[in-house]
Amino acid sequence: MRRALVLLVAALTAGELGAQALRPTGSASLVTARVRSAVPAGIDQFTGSAFLGQGALAMGRVELSFSYLQGTLNPDGGSAGGRDLVEGTVLLGVRALDWLTLEGGPHARAYTLAGSTQRWLFWELRARAGTAFVGSAAQGYVELWRALAADANVPEPFDHAQGGEVGMILRLARAPLSARVGYRIDHAVLGGGTRLETVDGVVIGVGLAWR
Amino acid sequence: MTQSGHLTRLCVLAWALSAGAGVLAAQSSDTLFATGVRAYKNLEFDLAAWLLRRDVTQLTAASAPAAERAKGLVYLGAAELYRGRRDSAVAVFRRLVMLDPRYRPDRLVFPPEVTSLFDGVRLQIKTVVVEVPRDTTITPGPGAFDIWLIASSFQTVEVTLRYADGAPFRSLYSGPVGDSLRVQWDGLDAAGAPPPVNRVVLRVASRAQTGELAGIVQLPLDLRLFRPDTLPWPPPPADGQLLPERATSGAAKRSLVGGLLLSGAVAALPAFVGGTDTPSGPRIAVAGTIGFAGLLGYVLHRPGRPLQGNVRANQTLRDAWQRQVASTTTENARRRREVHVVVRAGEATAIQPRGP
Predict the structure, then answer these.
(1) What is the CATH number of domain B3-124?
(2) pLDDT at residue B21 above 50?
(3) Among the residues of chain B, which ranges form H helices?
(4) For A73, which of A48, B173, B212, B273 could close a Cys bridge (C-beta 3.0–4.6 Å)?
(5) How many CB pairs under 8 A join A and B?
(6) Which of B275, B285, B297 is opposite residue A133, by nearest beta carbon?
(7) Which CATH code, of 3.40.190.10, 3.40.50.2000, 2.40.128.100, 3.30.2380.10, is assigned to A2-14+22-209?
(8) pLDDT above 80: residue B349
């Protein structure tokens, strides 16, 4: 699966890397995150805020993006203790069309529990579409992803996982700054539905892009 | 030499010439002239007159230069005078003055009887020679077409330009002329406009002191007007160059529809990915923000809203066009003033009034 993903990206990016300048972008966001873990024994739900840093290096139509999220979640009720949330992605993508980017790569997530740490590793394929809808100032985007494979240190076998993000980026006319607001959600199903893990939240951030 | 001796020699020469007519026809005018002058110098005036008359006739038929004909005529006049034919001498000298009013017999060659008779004839004859450039271009107004009048003797002249049918076109000069006179035409008609015709006639009428018309010299002038082409008007900015000055409905609809679609996508995202048990508050907040942005975009880009940037860009284009129009107008006005008249002179003809 991983080999197929690498081959797909290589085929799409062939011939695009020559004589192109690197275009870096970066953003910092505040995420109001909520984690909901439903197992037959009960439902654990945590909410909190996290810092999300994202960056990308683009060369021609090829893009290497990465993100890192870290925050602390507090239980909404019940006896479960607070847990730390750490998440990271490294994705290699290609801009297939002016408004469409396809990406693939690993997505790791870890909850630090009181006694142990749950580690999740998804191999994802993502599609991101974006276009301006209020003049050239506001760009809307829709991102959907699906896990092609996953590895988690939980007893239930992995079934499937998918997620998405929808939002809006406001760009200032003559400055490289941008503001972003969006909603994101991940949903993983394990053990034929005996375990459901959902992470969602609102993203509010500012970005910087060198053109 | 006796009179009978002259006649005998003349008869012999006539026989010889008639016998060798073919040879004589081939004889050059120079030979006739030289023979005539030699006969004149040998005081054989009958022979000289006969030879010189033939010489002048040949030169006139061949349209020889006036200077060559004048040489023959002055010797012929002198020969006629010494033959005792004063009237013939006066007629020859009259013809000489008409041919070239500037001509004066060489006083070292001809005796006072000849020169005084010639001067007397010249003072009686009122004629002019008109000298103009054959082909010249002038600018009407500031330019000038020079006309030189060389008079045989003091006289009064009227210099006019006339239409081909004889109607007056422009009066140039009326007054006395002694030896010579330069008259100028500025290339305009009597109203101060460029000539509306392609041909006019320069007419110089000479009058004696009594006011009697003594002669007319006419010269046709072919005129050609050259007006530089004017520049075409610069085309106004094409529709494709002008930006729309009013917002169309496209941007407004895009804002509204885009905002609604994105808001709907935010609201429907959990259901799409399968996570249905999610609180709706944060999602509704994000969906509302995006929807509000779309609505705001619709207001900002409402149809018919003036697009000031495009208005300014279009005005800059129109101003540039107006400047080009003004520049072209100025240039065309300058070119319209730059009219040239090409004047080509024809052959002069002299008209002598009939005697009483």
Answers:
(1) 1.25.40.10
(2) no
(3) 3-19, 21-26, 29-41, 45-61, 66-82, 86-99, 112-124, 249-273, 280-300, 308-337
(4) A48
(5) 98
(6) B297
(7) 2.40.128.100
(8) yes
